[in-house]
Amino acid sequence: MRQKETIILGIESSCDDTSAAILKNDAILSNIIAGQDVHKEYGGVVPELASRAHLQNIIPVVDAAIKKAKIKKEDIDAIAFTKGPGLLGSLIVGTSFAKTFALAMDIPLIDVNHMYGHVLAHFINDENKPMPKMPFLCLTVSGGHTQIVLIKDYLDMKIIGTTIDDAAGEAFDKAAKMLGFPYPGGPLIDKFAKNGDADKFQFAKPRVPDYNFSFSGLKTSILYFLQKQEKENPDFIKENLEDLCASIQKTIVDILLKQLEKVAKNLGIKEIAIAGGVSANSELRKRILEYQEKLDWQVYIPRFEYCTDNAAMIAITGKFMLEKELFADQSITALARMPFDADIC
Fold first, then answer.
1. Cα–Cα distance between 141 and 263 in angstroms, integer?
2. In three state form, how does the secondary structure of the chain look?
3. Where along the chain do its domains lie?
4. What fold characterizes domain 7-122+307-323?
5. Contact (Cβ atoms closer than 8 angstroms) between residue 149 and residue 213
6. Tens-level pLDDT at each residue, the chain (345 residues)
7. For the domain bounded by 132-302, which CATH number is listed?
8. How many CB atoms lie within 10 A of CB 99?
9. pTM assigned to the model
10. Do 7-122+307-323 and 132-302 fold alike per CATH?
């Protein structure tokens, strides 16, 4: 007897992207993302503006996802949404929509940890692309998080190392702002770094105990260096922009991969994945593939559309939770801070 197809609606609204996705079994039928350009003039995400934009975007985005997937809302078997972590106002919009939709359609409600979603995006059925074998390590790097996660099973994960201050994505964006780039500046550093000399300038690489990270010292190092150089030459940044971008990018990637290599060696794990917004960075992708050859790793890199915040990763996580009947009820609330290794049910 043929097994019934399972269709899940995923909702992601943790920061400034409103996203909805339709998952059938383990394949994505649609993954719609609406960004928010309003934040560019402020140099970063403004929480109040973000939540207002989510209110405007959530229904059109869900409608577009359903239409692109060529299904009806009555076909949906469950709805998975981001409970946290993230901006509280933004999370409340997604949570409220999911609760209302689940109640109206009389379907299960599944609350997902955003960070689990980044990791489990690797298990979206993507044209027979290889998937990590358990156990594996995942370097999860974004604007708000920098973690090395040990994954023993789909819902059994443990943080091995994390940042003690700032995230790598934040370091990219703050450095970009110092260089005069608009928000978000991380991708612009990546773009200009392609033609630069990555060894031209040297910046601080903080020594951190265990497997953790630190990027606040790096940001300070870049700031003081630029201030000193601009006193001597007001056009220093303009004249050295590509080399500065390449050097900053190399320093951040060096810090990330040094700790990842240490963890992999000490735990004897060669199945290695990257995830999160910074996993779209071309230097990180290139260098980790070099490590694959050098250290005999098996490396897994997500598609670009699954790197940044998206509902596809929430839907696939919802699938694994649905299989274990890990459901939420109508009393569920969004959480701005949500422990990664907390009991997800």
1. 16
2. CCCCCCEEEEEECCCCCEEEEEEECCEEEEEEEECCHHHHHHCCCCHHHHHHHHHHHHHHHHHHHHHHHCCCHHHCCEEEEEEECCCHHHHHHHHHHHHHHHHHHCCCEEEEEHHHHHHHHHHCCCCCCCCCCCCEEEEEECCCCEEEEEEEECCEEEEEEEECCCCHHHHHHHHHHHCCCCCCCHHHHHHHHCCCCCCCCCCCCCCCCCCCECCHHHHHHHHHHHHHHHHHCCCHHHHCHHHHHHHHHHHHHHHHHHHHHHHHHHHCCCEEEEECHHHHCHHHHHHHHHHHHHHCCEEECCCHHHCCCCHHHHHHHHHHHHHCCCCECCCCCCCCCCCCCCCCC
3. 7-122+307-323, 132-302
4. Nucleotidyltransferase; domain 5 (3.30.420)
5. no
6. 345 789 999 999 998 899 999 999 999 999 999 976 766 766 677 878 889 989 999 999 999 999 999 999 999 999 999 999 999 999 999 999 999 999 999 999 999 999 999 999 999 998 778 999 999 999 999 888 999 999 999 999 999 999 999 999 999 999 999 999 998 899 999 999 999 999 999 999 988 889 999 999 999 999 999 999 999 999 999 999 999 999 999 999 999 999 999 999 999 999 999 999 999 999 999 999 999 999 999 999 999 999 999 999 999 999 999 999 999 999 999 999 987 764 443
7. 3.30.420.40
8. 20
9. 0.93
10. yes
